[in-house]
Design goal:
By secondary structure, the protein is α+β, with helices and mostly antiparallel strands. The chain contains eight helices and eight strands, in the order βββββααααβββαααα. Helix 2 runs antiparallel to helix 3. The protein is elongated, with a radius of gyration of 21 Å.
């Protein structure tokens, strides 16, 4: 094969579908070229050497050949297999959700190193951590920041005044992209109520590296509230509901039924 046609890249498998009689069409995210659609010829054959390295959510090293319409996968070697994301129902639902968001927001054919790193780290966390809900909340807000939709959590989007620590409740106005102070919140009937703890959580996530957030004492109900608020904001931006979100929401609500201890609030608002 002509060497000038070949190039190597690391990639995360976002989505795959059958193509023809034995091939597989993949949507991948790469650091250098963003989102790509590529073809793995013969990947559905029993003896295919590539098949086991091209499962969904894997991080893989690829050798690709440039094609007229679709680039072709010549070689594949798995880097991070993430087995629990295919074996565990809840973790699989979370992985589908983060991959779907990455596919929606990733640029096609353009450098996307920061998004690639965020997704790779999130899949690692979902695969191995005891509390994967935290990885989801961190991913959502930092994905929004990378995409240019960072929510306003420092100033009221109604009156423009700095947000101070108050009993609340605050509000979150998705159409305005941020938090409303307790005085402005009643003026926006479509705004969702936002607790002081959830506001602290949003600020803490956006200001902190992940290890600090992982250790912070936020309870599952507060993380659930954050997920609902940010999910609504994502829906406003995307103008459609992610296919994977409904099932994930059901699993998350079920996980809260056992009850949880109280929480302490890290830092000030």
């Amino acid at each position: 094969m002509d060497r000038e046609r070949l190039y190597r890249t690391e990639a995360i498998i976002l989505r795959r579908s059958d193509f023809g009689e034995a091939d597989r069409l993949l949507t991948i995210l790469t650091p250098e070229l963003g989102k790509l659609r590529v073809l793995a010829k013969g990947a559905r054959k029993i003896r295919s050497r590539k098949a086991g390295h091209l499962e969904r959510f894997m991080r893989t090293s690829l050798l690709l050949a440039r094609g007229r319409e679709l680039d072709l996968i010549s070689q594949a070697e798995v880097i991070a297999p993430h087995p629990h994301l295919r074996e565990d129902l809840a973790r699989s639902a979370m992985a589908h959700y983060v991959a779907e968001l990455a596919e929606i927001f990733a640029p096609e054919g353009e450098e996307s190193r920061a998004l690639y790193r965020l997704l790779a780290e999130t899949l690692d966390r979902l695969d191995g951590e005891a509390d994967p809900q935290r990885a989801l909340r961190y991913y959502e807000l930092h994905l929004l920041e990378l995409a240019g939709f960072r929510p306003q959590v420092e100033f009221c989007v109604g009156c423009g005044e700095p947000l101070r620590e108050e009993r609340g409740p605050y509000g979150f106005a998705s159409e305005r992209g941020g938090v409303l102070c307790p005085r402005c919140a009643p003026r926006f009937p479509t705004a969702r109520p936002l607790s002081r703890r959830a506001l602290k959580g949003m600020r803490f996530i956006l200001r902190s590296p992940y290890p600090a957030f992982r250790a912070a004492p936020f309870s599952p109900p507060t993380l659930q509230e954050l997920g609902e608020v940010v999910g609504r904001y994502l829906l406003t931006i995307m103008e459609r509901r992610p296919r994977s979100l409904a099932f994930l929401s059901e699993l998350t609500r079920a996980a809260l039924e056992a009850g949880h201890p109280g929480e302490r609030e890290p830092g000030g608002a």
